[in-house]
């Protein structure tokens, strides 16, 4: 039995992992969030790893408030870079596989064809920069680190675009949503399945499979298209207007295009990726 530490376990990805953990009997899971293990506390991280026998760590903790990060740079870097360094060092010292989650916001969005893992990064926001520093640091500490970049994460858990839109649509007659930012949503439960199947292969293969991988659901759409689908598939009625980003100003700049090329993760781990609309339907059944 291999013990897997899940940090930030009360967040939406952490809760998605808890939902499917029973399908992976070869693993026993240690779920921690801020109160059990504050990953910004280096000493606490080292003590935790010394007291428990940990074979792998999936870091689901992060500073994810994209706009707020613009005015809380220090906090964002503390969690998305420094804490990642503490976990990566502890994993290295205890021979544990480290899986770090990152984001499409590491790209500037100037491309118009899907981003591969080899494409140059150029984050446009504090959140994106802090996540980029975290992934580079973890890989620098150990090339066995697996960094999985994902995008537009949503689920029945926590706070996300799907839940926020449904609330807004019930409160308001009309909404403006940007149509000049294109990407692909990711259902957190699909990502959780991918993380555990990746780990199942990687845990017994030290020295291989490390590196960056892209994962989202299949398809390409704008936030506007996503909002329309959320409305129609939820049976709600709200007038949704497509607007350009300058008509919906935000503190943080988002990439205009952040679609992933997912060939690497599909081929390396034999993963089949669900179409975004099918996964949205699954999520909406749980809401
Ligand atoms: N959400 C999204 O749209 C996307 C997310 N990602 C990445 O996916 C990963 C998971 O994201 P998601 O599940 O949405 O994140 P959430 O914000 O839902 O969850 C993060 C969790 O980490 C906890 N946490 C905060 N500070 C600490 C700390 N010092 N020590 C331990 N835990 C802490 C949070 O607790 P509390 O709530 O109390 O602060 C929360 O439970 C992250 O790496 C994120 O960057 C990538 C692309 C898209
Ligand atoms: C609520 C709302 C948002 N928007 C715009 C703002 C923004 O450009 C886009 C997305 O909105 P949000 O701010 O909810 O999403 P945002 O926080 O940018 O989501 C991101 O979170 C981080 C953690 C990631 O890693 C990314 O992959 C991505 O999922 O939609 C509207 O146009 N109208 C609206 O009513």
Automatic annotation (TrEMBL):
Reaction(s) catalysed (UniProt annotation): dTDP-beta-L-rhamnose + NADP(+) = dTDP-4-dehydro-beta-L-rhamnose + NADPH + H(+)
GO CC field: cytosol
GO term, biological process aspect, one: dTDP-rhamnose biosynthetic process
Record key words, sorted: NADP, Oxidoreductase
GO molecular function, one term: dTDP-4-dehydrorhamnose reductase activity
Keyword Cell wall biogenesis/degradation belongs to the record: no
Domain spans labelled RmlD-like substrate binding: 3-286
Cited SUPFAM superfamilies: NAD(P)-binding Rossmann-fold domains
Top-rank lineage group of the source organism: Bacteria
EC number: 1.1.1.133
One Pfam match: RmlD_sub_bind
Pathway: Carbohydrate biosynthesis; dTDP-L-rhamnose biosynthesis
Function: Catalyzes the reduction of dTDP-6-deoxy-L-lyxo-4-hexulose to yield dTDP-L-rhamnose.
PANTHER family named among the record's database cross-references: DTDP-4-DEHYDRORHAMNOSE REDUCTASE, METHIONINE ADENOSYLTRANSFERASE 2 SUBUNIT BETA
Family according to the record: Belongs to the dTDP-4-dehydrorhamnose reductase family.
NCBIfam families associated with the record: rmlD (TIGR01214)
Listed name of the protein: dTDP-4-dehydrorhamnose reductase
Native species: Chitinophaga silvisoli
């Amino acid at each position: 039995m291999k013990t897997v530490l899940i940090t930030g376990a009360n967040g939406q990805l952490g809760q998605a992992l808890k939902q499917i953990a029973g399908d992976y009997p070869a693993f026993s899971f240690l779920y921690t969030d801020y109160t059990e293990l504050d990953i910004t506390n280096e000493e606490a991280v080292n003590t935790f790893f010394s007291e428990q026998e940990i074979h792998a760590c999936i870091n689901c903790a992060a500073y994810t408030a994209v706009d707020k990060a613009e005015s809380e740079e220090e906090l964002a870097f503390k969690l998305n870079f420094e804490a990642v360094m503490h976990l990566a060092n502890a994993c290295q010292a205890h021979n544990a596989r480290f899986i770090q989650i990152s984001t499409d916001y590491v790209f500037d969005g100037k491309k118009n064809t899907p981003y591969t893992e080899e494409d140059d990064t150029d984050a446009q926001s504090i959140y994106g920069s802090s996540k980029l520093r975290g992934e580079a640091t973890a890989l620098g500490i150990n090339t066995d680190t697996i960094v999985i970049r994902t995008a537009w994460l949503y689920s029945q858990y926590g706070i996300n675009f799907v839940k926020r839109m449904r609330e807004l649509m019930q409160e308001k007659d009309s909404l403006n949503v940007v149509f000049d930012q294109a990407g692909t949503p990711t259902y957190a439960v699909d990502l959780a399945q991918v993380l555990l199947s990746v780990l199942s292969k990687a845990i017994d293969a030290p020295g291989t499979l490390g590196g960056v991988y892209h994962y989202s659901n299949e398809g390409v759409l704008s936030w506007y298209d996503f909002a329309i689908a959320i409305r129609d598939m939820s049976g709600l009625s709200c007038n949704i207007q497509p607007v350009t980003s300058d008509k919906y100003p935000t503190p943080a700049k988002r990439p205009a295009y952040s679609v992933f090329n997912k060939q690497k993760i599909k081929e390396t781990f034999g993963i089949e990726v669900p179409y975004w609309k099918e996964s949205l339907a699954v999520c909406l059944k749980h809401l």
